[in-house]
Amino acid sequence: MLRRLIYVLPVLVFVALAAVFMTGLELDPRAVPSGRIDKPVPAFDLPPIEGRDEGLAAADLADGRPVLVNFFASWCVPCLAEHPQLMKMAREDGVRIVGVNYKDRPEDARRWLDRHGDPYAQIGADLDGRTGIEFGISGVPETFVIDGRGHIIAQHIGVLTAEALETRIRPLLREAAE
């Protein structure tokens, strides 16, 4: 009996570890729980980027309309990958999108937007990254869905794909608009 257990035990351990790893692979790494959900946006007041007259402040996010807050930078390659989705949402869906230009030179941000298009109703320059820290971002791109009261209802880490927009972001925006 003991001999049989010696042969079976490694197999059982392997099966158990495989089950644990398979479960871990099914988790979405972008679905990180945020302590900011259902809380007001943090207080901030950012200057505009070059070529803009208006920056962005927390008060701009509590005007009764839902809004997407997108943290981006001209040096961020994944930001360029998601940019067409933001352009499409602003153009076709009429979604109000505001940008936070994260740790970027304002003149670089302006050139980047001139080259790729500008989906943002307002943009603030987070030159030192303090606002990003207050929001709890881990990097760029990151996007937050804000309800009309200025409360964070969702955080999306990473590139906004067409699938993420369709299955998560648009439904949240519709719900927030009701």
From TrEMBL:
Source species taxonomy: Bacteria, Pseudomonadati, Pseudomonadota, Alphaproteobacteria, Geminicoccales
Name of this protein: Cytochrome C-type biogenesis protein
Protein family membership: Belongs to the thioredoxin family. DsbE subfamily.
Pfam families listed in its UniProt record: Redoxin
Top-level taxon in the UniProt lineage: Bacteria
Sorted UniProt keywords: Cytochrome c-type biogenesis, Disulfide bond, Membrane, Redox-active center, Transmembrane, Transmembrane helix
Keyword match Disulfide bond: yes
Chief location of this protein within or outside the cell: other
InterPro entries, per database record: Periplasmic_diS_OxRdtase_DsbE (IPR004799), Redoxin (IPR013740), Thioredoxin-like_sf (IPR036249), Thioredoxin_CS (IPR017937), Thioredoxin_domain (IPR013766), Thioredoxin_ResA/DsbE_sf (IPR050553)
Organism of provenance: Tistrella bauzanensis
Domain Thioredoxin: 35-174
Positions of transmembrane segments: 6-27
Nucleotide-binding among keywords: no
Subcellular location: Cell envelope
